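Predict the 3D structure for this chain.
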Amino acid sequence: MVVIIPPPVQSINAYSLSPLTAAMNGTIQHGFYDGTYARYGDPIVSFTVHDRPEFHGISHYELRITLDSEGSLDPFLIIDDRTPELDAVWYVQSTEFDQTLPVEPGQVVEYPHENFTLWQAHMQVADVPISAVSWDNGCGDLAETVWSAYHPYDPHDPQDQIISMGINWTDPSTQSGFWGPANIKANLSELEWSAETRILQSWLPPPPVVARLNAAAAKQSGFFQKWTWQPRLAPAGAEVELGGYYDWTSPRWPTGYPDEARSTVERADVGASKLTPREKVERVNRPWQTGFSKSSLFSFQIEAPWKTCPTGEASYYSSKKE
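Done. Predicted structure below.
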């Protein structure tokens, strides 16, 4: 049986600055589901939506200070009343980010009554996962992203011009550019091997041998047949780890959104992608670098499981009333 090896998991929190509505909750969940290719079920990051009444109506700066005082020092997301209309959330960096960022005079608007500059970007929801993982892996940072649209940077700017990569994440053609192979494990009976020079020369330097899922195993597990590098032929009875390339069209992977019937907050517009272009939002497109090959980006933490992963474990997402 082909098994997906779960990648390491990191997490990010999202906070609502007004009472969380179904439309607000649905927008972020739809966006993350599309932008992380969560349909494949092997996420490396989870996110949780928090609806805390004491945060309703406060400023982004005040929220950053409050979370710092609670020991939550990491970047986070902000959901507000405009999230459903603009399909956008705020990505807010850590306080430490400002303290370590080299800034030249004139690059940032400073406010004397604030102890630090709050770095934040008003971003298309579905772009957040790839952006966060890229920044975490040293591929650019939030300052470069926001400077591409706003210069000098003003932390009080409402950023009505939403920062967007301009990508339709529900288009299968985006997969090859942003989606690395999954780490999978298969039995020898599920594999094909080759040491043919014509095939090995696709790598530099050429590997000793390559392997791929056979046609039956690939179809059953929802992957393409694609040769992957191997250090040696595996001995009899061994299980082999290799890269698995997802087949977008396989019936193994669900095409719709999660069933939230049992979620703590009902979601509106189930089945409608939030990634269709909106004329009212002025998009800022910029080149993007991806210096990593992790198999999946984000998952959701929920109150109720919506599907069973190929590993037999459930993925979750949650919206918390606190």
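The two ends are 42 Å apart (CA to CA).
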